[in-house]
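Exercise 7.
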Amino acid sequence: MQSPLGTIILYARDMQKSAAFYAQHFGFSTYGEVREGLIELKAPHGGAAILIHQAAKSIKLGQVGVKLSFHVEDVAAFVAEAAARGLQFGAIHQANGYAFANAKDPDGNSVSVSSRAYRV
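Solution. The predicted structure, written as tokens, is:
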């Protein structure tokens, strides 16, 4: 039986702000409105969708239990473009034939861009 990952649910203090973050910096499309308690973001070129859910006050956000990693061919170029849009990544790290860099979303969740999927 196949079970591909289709949706990632993120809890957010400010749903609109989080939805705008992923739309602006990672190209997700969204209507931005809350439907059934969620804001849906669709991946620009296939891949998992993101659902933004209102976080209860009891939820502790920004832990490192989950990190969203976005595939990009040129990490340095993406990081430079993101900086121009106001998103600061940390240092670019080199690994076994690929590069990656880390940042945080508005709720402190870890996000990264990585060229690992494009290594030869």
